[in-house]
């Protein structure tokens, strides 16, 4: 029994390790917009965050729990869009590893044009983070400004996943 438990723990560790990113893609706003449209057959959860944002870091464990719960559903995808600076890419990679982030992380390298792309994502977004936007069939179905509880995240996903 002890050996079986050891093997199970080892397998969980291997799967968790494989799920982590070893590289972070940096994209401009237009690339993320295309990516959202490309995932048009899914409920896409897009969370904007930064490693230096305390509420963002606080909510990420809930997002990872929910991502693990739904990741085998072919109609679900979660993307974490980091607003950290491109020069901090290594810090973002270290953060991914230390916090065991299992969702895909993209670094948005478009800070200078924030006033252009923020209203394109959501006209009511004032630029503060965290922000989570839900897309279904390529169309925005829900916008959450601020920290999101695990319960609210799961409820929003369940309401839109049908």
Automatic annotation (TrEMBL):
SUPFAM superfamilies reported in the protein's UniProt record: Thioredoxin-like
Signal sequence residues: 1-21
Keywords: Redox-active center, Signal
An annotated Gene Ontology molecular function: antioxidant activity
Pfam families: AhpC-TSA
Keyword Signal: yes
Domain Thioredoxin: 13-162
Name of the protein in question: AhpC/TSA family protein
Organism, scientific name: Chryseobacterium vrystaatense
């Amino acid at each position: 029994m002890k050996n079986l438990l050891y093997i199970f723990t080892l397998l969980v560790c291997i799967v968790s390790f494989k799920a982590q990113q070893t590289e972070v893609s940096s994209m401009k706003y237009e690339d993320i917009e295309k990516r959202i449209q490309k995932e048009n057959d899914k409920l896409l959860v897009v969370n904007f965050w930064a490693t230096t944002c305390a509420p963002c870091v606080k909510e990420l464990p809930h997002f990872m729990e929910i991502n693990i719960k739904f990741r085998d559903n072919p109609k679900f995808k979660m993307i974490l869009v980091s607003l950290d600076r491109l020069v901090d890419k290594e810090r973002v990679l270290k953060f991914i590893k230390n916090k065991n982030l299992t969702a895909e992380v993209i670094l948005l390298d478009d800070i200078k044009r924030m006033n252009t792309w923020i209203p394109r994502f959501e006209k009511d977004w004032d630029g503060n983070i965290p922000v989570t936007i839900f897309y279904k069939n390529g169309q925005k179905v829900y916008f959450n400004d601020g920290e999101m509880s695990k319960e609210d995240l799961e409820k929003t996903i369940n309401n839109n996943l049908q």
